[in-house]
Specification:
Low-confidence stretches: 1-18
Distance between the termini: 9 Å
Largest sheet: none
Oligomer: single chain
Helix content: over 70%
Structural class: mainly alpha
Strand content: under 5%
Mean pLDDT: 89
Number of strands: 0
Number of helices: 12
């Protein structure tokens, strides 16, 4: 049922009179969603995990590559990307960010709180835009800082073998900022999937399937198929912005990232259509 009926007051549920002059605006909805996000302990824990993984794993892997550099084969040295090595923690941190994005929406459906939210914002769409925008802003701010810290720590490890790089080198600054951008879009994709499926398990399974399982399946295809398909997968397209040493078959940094944004926006648009058509 999408139609709303006026509630009849009873002794146990008195009529609530709206405060005069108070309107539902996008700014107020944004503030409301920020309050929800900040007040949840799962938000702080998930973002802390993402921060620790991005920084810690990036430094650890950089240390490992530097420690075994003398044993590296010549072909491995030629394809070595010091920037991507220090940002390698992002590949695992995306799971924490994406899961939190799903939970932001699906958690309200599982508890029934979404009914109160939609009753307060009858037009519904401002809620979806606010959830996506607030989470995107928080994720970009924190994960960009984590990306810079991971880069600095990783390059400190690699400098012992004189294989480090600097932000002034071509493509490096783009890749480091791209770490925050990539995780931001992963978070928005999680929000969109949570709104589309209204299920925590379904949203997380779909997210993992798109980012992790689908690339594995494509690797088993014939090589002439694999090379043409892999570059257009969501994860491959999005991660192209993290690479300074590009594979010849991969999309360019901004082209791939634009395609990844397109996937997330398409999912968000689908969630918006269903949000208007389905009951809360």
């Amino acid at each position: 049922m999408t139609a709303t009926a006026e509630a009849v007051p009873t002794p146990s549920s008195p009529r609530v009179t709206p405060e005069p002059g108070v309107k539902v605006t996008q700014r107020r909805v944004l503030h409301s969603e920020w309050t929800k996000l900040y007040s949840l302990r799962s938000t702080r824990y998930s973002l802390l995990v993402a921060l620790v993984i991005t920084i810690g794993l990036g430094i650890l892997i950089s240390w490992g590559r530097a420690s075994h550099w003398d044993q590296e084969r010549p072909i491995e040295r030629l394809s070595f990307d010091p920037t991507l090595t220090s940002l390698s923690g992002i590949f695992l941190a995306q799971l924490a960010v994406g899961v939190l994005g799903v939970l932001i929406v699906s958690g309200e459906y599982s508890t029934g709180m979404i009914r109160a939210t939609m009753a307060a914002v009858p037009t519904r769409l401002p809620v979806l835009w606010a959830k996506a925008a607030v989470f995107a802003m928080v994720t970009f701010a924190l994960m960009t800082v984590a990306s810079f810290v991971a880069f600095a720590g990783g390059q400190a490890m690699l400098s012992s073998k004189h294989i480090s790089t600097t932000l002034s080198q071509p493509g490096v600054l783009t890749a480091v900022i791209g770490g925050g951008l990539y995780l931001t879009v992963v978070g928005v994709l999680g929000v969109a999937l949570g709104a589309l499926l209204r299920s925590t398990a379904g949203g997380i399974a779909t997210l993992f399937g798109l980012l992790l399982i689908l690339p594995i399946i494509v690797r088993f295809l014939p090589s002439n198929w694999r090379d043409h398909i892999d570059r257009y997968l969501p994860s491959s397209a999005g991660q192209s912005i993290l690479q300074v040493v590009h594979d010849s078959s991969a999309l360019s940094a901004w082209t791939g990232f634009a395609l990844f944004c397109g996937y997330a926006l398409a999912a968000l648009a689908g969630a918006a259509v269903l949000l208007r058509r389905r009951d809360a």
